[in-house]
Design brief:
Layout: H1 15-19, H2 31-41, H3 46-52, H4 58-66, H5 70-76, H6 79-92, H7 101-112, H8 114-117, H9 122-135, E1 141-142, E2 147-148, H10 157-160, H11 180-183, E3 189-190, H12 196-215, H13 221-236, H14 241-261
Antiparallel strand pairs: 1-2, 2-3
Length: 262
């Protein structure tokens, strides 16, 4: 376990857990999560929760542990919202760049508000990111190659290809139509540093196919286009494309030698 977490809000935020081997974890840390989840399942059990926590009144339970809106608290603590907020937090903190049409749009929008978060502490910056994620009204969906943040649901290509559109209250990708060739040109698609391995593999594979097809006098255009697109996004994510290309060139030379020796 490292001393800092992946997106630390303070220096060495995991050091205490690491040094104590988890012995610092206390059951009271999970009181609010337990109360929120329980009331969301059945609000009638609030008196039982208050009794369990030995609260003098139900109001203490409601305001201190559940909040005035249990559903909203559950939503704020949901994994989807946290992962969406993390995108904004990482960009604000300079830990990650974005590619894709939605990625460039988000970066531009966040840049407009840089005066608000530039001098903020890490905890304040996380609060800004979380509020921004909550207020946009939709969550991001994540896949190994990239994500979808459907702010423009009417332009989701996974729906438009069928002449369809998302249903109200259920704005999410149409997964049966989802593929890189379709989604990468969508207005709602973004790529982060977490997707770099997938795009490195896509570049290597298509650049090698391009070289091989060119040597064999085959149709290499589609592979060249895919490799070029992958290279452009990898550069935006700060990856050394020239080094990767050189490694693929070595693979190509080995392949060509095997062909000549056959």
């Amino acid at each position: 376990l490292p001393d800092p977490s992946e997106s630390p809000l303070e220096i060495g935020d995991l050091a205490e857990y690491k040094n104590s081997k988890g012995r610092c974890i206390k059951p009271t840390q999970f009181r609010k999560s337990f109360a929120s989840f329980s009331v969301q399942v059945d609000s009638r059990i609030q008196p039982a929760i208050a009794l369990h926590f030995k609260h003098v009144s139900h109001a203490i339970t409601e305001t201190g542990y559940i909040g005035n809106n249990p559903g909203l608290l559950i939503e704020r603590n949901s994994l989807a919202l946290q992962k969406t907020a993390k995108i904004f937090f990482d960009v604000m903190s300079g830990n990650s760049d974005l590619a894709g049409r939605r990625g460039l749009h988000l970066k531009e929008e966040l840049h407009k508000h840089r005066d608000i978060y530039l001098n903020a502490s890490l905890k304040e910056r996380w609060g800004i990111a979380e509020d921004y994620a909550k207020n946009i009204g939709v969550y991001a969906w994540f896949e190994p190659d990239g994500g979808c943040l459907p702010l423009d649901s009417s332009e989701m290509r996974c729906y438009s290809i069928d002449g369809d559109k998302p249903k109200n209250g259920k704005i999410q990708p149409k997964f049966e139509n989802r593929r890189v060739a379709l989604c990468s040109g969508c207005k709602n698609y973004f790529v982060t540093i977490d997707n770099k391995d997938q795009w490195i593999s896509r570049f290597r594979e298509n650049y090698l196919f391009f070289k091989q097809q060119k040597y064999l006098k085959g149709n290499a255009v589609i592979f060249e286009r895919r490799a070029s697109a992958a290279a452009a996004w990898l550069k935006r994510l700060g990856q050394d494309v020239d080094k990767i290309r050189s490694e693929v060139e070595d693979e190509y030379l080995k392949w060509m030698n095997s062909i000549l020796q056959a």
